[in-house]
Amino acid sequence: MSDQKNLIAAAGLSFLVILVWTFFFAPPPPDPETAPTVAESAAAPVAGAPAGQQAAQGETQEAEAVAAEAVRVRIETPALSGSISLRGGRIDDLHLTEYQETLDEGSDTVTLLSPVGSRHPYFAVWGWLNAEGGAAKTPEPNTEWRLESGETLTPQTPVTLVWDNGEGLIFRRTMAVDENFMFTVTQSVENAGGAAVSLAPYSYVARRGEPETINFFILHEGAIAVLDGQLKEVDYSDMTEMPPSGPGVRQERVSALSDGFVGFTDKYWMTTIAPGPGVAFDAAFKHVQRATGPEYRTEALLPIREVAPGAKAEVSTFLFAGAKEYRTIHDYQERLKIDRFDDSIDWGWFFFLTKPIFQLLLWVEDIIGNMGWSIIALTFIIKAALFPLAWKSYVAMSKMKKLQPEMEKIKEKVGDDRQKMQQEMMALYKREKANPAAGCLPILLQIPIFFSLYKVLFVTLEMRHAPFILWIEDLSAPDPTSILNLFGLLPWDTPDPSSFFYIFSIGVFPVLMGVTMWMQQKLNPAPTDKMQAQIFAWMPWIFMFMLGTFASGLVIYWCANNIITFIQQYAIMRSQGVDVDFLGNVKKSLKRKPKEG
3-state DSSP call for residue 388? Predict the structure, then answer.
């Protein structure tokens, strides 16, 4: 029964992985408070600065009023709406107009950035720091800027903010935005005084309170950066354990000599700062313990600028704040030369598989126009590419099946002498040129494909709220129907996702997946070993419930994969002269065994 053992081994391994995945749960996020006052350490060597120069250490007190009291400049683009606060000149109010929180009619659009005073403050800040020994008055987080030009920030109309420190330095901040999610922020300082100043421009993204996360181990949520070609991912929990750098502050700094970006990533959304190609900067990952709760920061500190009397210094940085649309992000990578920007999507360990699979899926979806049918089409393409492996696997299983009578004779001949049986079996395999492992190895080689496809369907934004047919309106969500109310025919609600019984509330496609797995099994007789037979009999139904709460897109893929595999296995085994008694095996499995005694 080596063919049965091979299938059990492969299915068991997959089941073990799914079992582990299922038992990772997200803790409920606490509510942050909103009256922060904290001393912020901003000292670190500046990338590219002359030896001995560094940003000045100091403390910035943030006694912020409620954000609604600040004067605001509206942001209106085809993809974004929100506002800029003139208090601090920060972008702290941003909504993604093309994305809703839920599929319910009238659902709010996705809120990405929120001001201080909201439930989850999340904002982007720019400014200047004095070099060591400098004492120039620079804009602070609560500085009141003045709108110098422009009225509303749109793709056609940038806005400029200005602040005069009253001591000879005039600071300006010009903000522009494109049709999608990329802001260009140009900071300048004009020295109208009589002495030179040394200033380092910086920008940072801050999140206050504990960010809401899915907390699923195959997905990175937290700080992210690419620095000189190296991808760096830092979980929120890791930021709390970084080396201390001041009272209540922990941070880690990494220098980028040429280019990169740094920021925060969620499953579908991202806020990152990119100084631009060829620009050296120091990236910082910082955790600040404020009186009202934690603050997480990612910073970009640029080299010091020497500004002589009558001179002007200017620097531009990019801020991406929006949805992780692959094509949009990849376009920025190519056009703006932001190195490895599309790796902000979490492709995982098998990135060499996940990225091409996703690109192929997008190509198919462009042709078909429906993501659900595209997943099914992709299944056909993957099965066609893996057909040589499937052929080898099922041919090997067919050969082992033909040897079954000889193997039974050996068992009868040697009895309980296991060593003798092993010797006889090896001699049989050698004589008939059969390899019992040949059927299992090709199946195991397909597991990375499954992992990669699961990753693609789980992490990519293009799956979110993508409809298929009839009741499937979101391929990233579980099948909404439930067997517990006969798929909507009975007049009662299904269990809440927080309920223990939710795992039994499976829909049409999970049931179809279980049935197709069961059909696959019936291409072979049940194992003679009782324990193996029981495991084999329960496996489809265990998978059915375990995957019932997974994304419907993945379950649809598995259904299609099972059906194609059934056809392949049946056709290949018949071509090898094996008698496949599918209906007979079904009848035997459904027939009740008489009670003993």
Answer: helix
**Which two tokens mark 582?**
């599918």
Residues 191 and 194: their CA atoms lie apart, in Å, by 8
3-state secondary structure 221-269: CEEEEEECCEEEEEEHHHHCCCCEEECCEEEEEEEECCCEEEEEECCCE
Residues ≥6 apart with Cβ < 8 Å to 41: 57, 59, 245, 246, 249, 251
Q: Measuring CA to CA, how many Å separate 250 from each of 40, 116, 207, 288, 299? A: 10, 22, 15, 7, 13
| 3-state DSSP assignment of residue 398 | helix
Instruction: Give CA separation, 576 vs 105, 383, 390, 572, 582, in Å.
Output: 56, 20, 14, 6, 16
pLDDT digits (tens, 9 = 90+) for 65-75: 444 467 999 99
Any idea what DSSP says for residue 205? Answer: E
Helix, strand, coil percentages (3-state) for the chain, rounded to 5, are 35, 25, 40
| Residue carrying structure tokens 């620009």 | 279
pLDDT at 439: 61
The beta strands (E) that lie in 66-121 are given as 72-76, 80-85, 90-100, 109-113
Q: Are strands 230-235 and 182-191 parallel, antiparallel or unpaired?
A: unpaired
pLDDT at 323: 98
pLDDT at 45: 37
Residue 304 is classified by DSSP as P
Q: Are 372 and 364 in contact, with CB atoms under 8 Å apart?
A: no
**Which pLDDT score is estimated for 201?**
97
> How high is the pLDDT of residue 303?
94
Other beta carbons within 10 angstroms of residue 159's beta carbon come to: 21
Per the DSSP assignment, residues forming a β-bridge with 20 are: none
DSSP strand pairing (260-265 vs 269-274): antiparallel
pLDDT reported for residue 39: 26
Residue 308 burial (CB count, 10 A): 11
Element (H, E) at 590: helix 582-590
Which tens digits make up the pLDDT trace of 195-204? Answer: 999 999 999 9
Query: What token pair was written down for 336?
Result: 């703006």
**What's the pLDDT tens digit per position in 204-248?**
999 999 998 888 888 999 999 999 999 999 999 999 999 999 899
Q: Length of the chain in residues, anyone?
A: 597
pLDDT digits (tens, 9 = 90+) for 418-435: 788 888 888 887 887 777
Query: What residue ranges of the chain have pLDDT lower than 70?
Result: 1-69, 436-443, 492, 525, 527-529, 592-597
In order of 57, 97, 268, the CA distances from 101 in angstroms are: 41, 10, 12
Distance separating alpha carbons of residues 502 and 554, to the nearest angstrom: 19
Q: What is the pLDDT of residues 144-179, one digit of tens each?
A: 999 999 999 999 999 999 999 999 999 999 999 999
Contact criterion met (CB below 8 Å) for 397 and 435: no
Q: Which residues contact 226 (CB under 8 A, 6 or more apart)?
A: 232, 260, 261, 339, 340, 341, 343, 344
Q: Which amino acid is at 325?
A: E
Angle value at C-alpha 240, between 237 and 245, nearest 5 degrees: 155
